[in-house]
Write a structure and sequence with these properties.
The chain is an alpha+beta fold and about 160 residues long.
Length: about 160
């Protein structure tokens, strides 16, 4: 039973480290992160997702690349359908309407590296009192599981 509890504790700790690292480290490395943690946020991304993007020269874009575009208060991910010297044709493949747009080809544009679903819910939880209580309780349970695993390990060693 102690091995089972240690597997649970190690899995929870590993997931916590990966999620925390995925949310905290990229901004320090120059990667733009868009966390969809608000229901009122204007975006075509799924709620609770985190999108990572890097600034690239617009001449490096190819058809099929995804770009992060800031429009007013919203942040959108579009797929590049064509690149000209002055404009970039993009299509919204994440929305139902799938509209196409023409963007001006500036000196740099944010190219999407990848989008990770669900880890944005962590920041949503930490923004509320109930979420902080749940995270605190999870930490307490991990500590209790670790202590129980060590106690049961000592009992098994004595046998």
């Amino acid at each position: 039973m102690s091995k089972f509890l240690k597997v649970i504790v190690n899995t929870i700790l590993f997931l916590a480290i990966v999620v925390a690292g995925g949310l905290l480290i990229p901004p320090f490395a120059g990667v733009t992160t868009v966390i969809v943690d608000d229901t009122n946020m204007e975006t075509n991304l799924a709620r609770g997702s985190v999108t990572y993007a890097l600034s690239k020269d617009s001449s490096q874009l190819k058809t099929g690349n995804k770009v992060l575009v800031y429009e007013g208060d919203g942040q959108y991910v579009y797929e590049v359908t064509g690149v000209n010297s002055d404009t970039i044709s993009v299509e919204d493949k994440l929305s139902v309407d799938g509209q196409t747009k023409e963007l001006s080809a500036g000196s740099s544009i944010k190219k999407v590296l990848f989008t990770v679903p669900f880890i944005g819910y962590v920041t949503m939880a930490l923004g509320t009192t109930e979420g902080i209580i749940i995270v605190g309780l999870a930490v307490v349970f991990v500590i209790i599981f670790f202590i129980l695993a060590e106690i049961w390990k000592k009992d098994e060693d004595e046998d």
